[in-house]
Design brief:
The protein has 86 residues and is mainly β. The protein has one domain: SH3 type barrels (Roll), CATH 2.30.30. The protein is 0% helix and 58% strand. It has strands spanning 16-24, 29-49, 57-66, 72-77, 82-85. Strands 4-3-2-1-5 form a five-stranded antiparallel β-sheet, with no helix packed on it. The N and C termini lie far apart (29 Å).
């Protein structure tokens, strides 16, 4: 399983952050960046079954943000996620 790590201060509610995520492909990398205010950071289980995991579910690091335009975004964080303070 890919693990995520970040400074705990970046994950506290009301922190302004920029999150850059990457998705490796065969010949390229898809990159996206989102800026917003942290609403909540948590570990949450998915609806997918994953053998030998806690409660037989796959647990993901999730970061909930409010963008400047008010849109709410939930990000699944992994080892390709980079969080910067703004």
């Amino acid at each position: 399983m890919l693990e995520f790590s970040a400074d705990a201060a970046l994950l506290k509610p009301a922190a302004r952050v920029r999150v850059t995520q990457q998705l490796p492909q065969n010949n390229t990398v898809w990159t996206t960046t989102i800026e917003g205010t942290v609403l909540r950071y948590r570990q949450a289980k998915t609806g997918s079954w994953f053998a030998h995991a806690k409660e037989d579910k796959l647990w993901l690091d999730r970061l909930e943000l409010r963008k400047d335009d008010g849109e709410l975004v939930t990000l699944n964080l992994d080892c390709y996620s980079v969080i910067e303070a703004l």
